[in-house]
């Protein structure tokens, strides 16, 4: 059982690091880079990247993986010293998951579904500033979850 606890914490920490890195990459390079482009480039590039990121590799190893492995790590560490840190990570990432599904995904989907050649109007309806602000929240919360899981690993190793 001790090995299962360690492996679950390790998997949760690894996948949380991957998703945090993806959110951070958007926050510090992709969105600032796209911000400087014309409307047509922004709309077509963002839509293409969003289509590309929705793939089994990303979903299993990062976005859904972080959730599933953190739930597993929390459950198998019930009553252990690492448990409170796993719970903190789960709560933080649960908020990230909700933000993603309620804010970012609907904005992404609306941009991809937009038709016509008025790229200025499509970009304005996308609400770029709103997307960026909520992505920053996702970055900080998932980063906090990563720290909590890292600490859970340390606590687990000491017991």
TrEMBL record:
According to the lineage, what is the superkingdom? Bacteria
Q: Which UniProt keywords apply?
A: Membrane, Transmembrane, Transmembrane helix
Q: Which InterPro entries does the UniProt record give?
A: Anthrone_oxy (IPR013901)
Has UniProt tagged this entry with the keyword Nucleotide-binding? Answer: no
The UniProt record lists the keyword Ribosomal protein: no
Q: Which residues form a coiled coil?
A: none
Pfam families tied to this protein: Anthrone_oxy
Record field: transmembrane: 6-27, 57-76, 82-103, 132-154
What is the name of this protein? DUF1772 domain-containing protein
